[in-house]
Amino acid sequence: MGAKKRLRAEKLKEERKNIAFAKLNNCPVSPRKMRMVADLVRGVEVNKALNILQHNPREASGRLATLLRSAIANWEQKNEDKNLEDEQLVVKSVEVGSAGMLKRIQPAPQGRAHRIRKRSNHVTIVVDSIN
Description:
Elements: H1 3-15, E1 20-27, H2 31-41, H3 46-54, H4 59-78, E2 88-107, E3 113-130
Antiparallel strand pairs: 1-3, 2-3
Helix pairs in contact: 3-4
């Protein structure tokens, strides 16, 4: 590895020290519904985001709240020397992508059938501290 590449790698590693993430795969909620909830907490301070998710009636908000708590726990694990109350954690990004679909058949009149696509998604949430 060249000197430039090594220095850049060390710089990236240092930048990622404060960042913690959590990932949820194959969540049985459609990506569109999950994105509606994810847009509410993107860029918001962590405690406020948990409060928003707790009081949101959608089913996706419960799953996202659990994922956010996991990301916070990962941040605490990564930064043992820092205190959570002293740092100001923010939801840096929330990415929602589509996962596989369960394809089902719904009987229809006159011997026909309609296809039902039960969608699922992958969610990645990144938590970072503001300095």
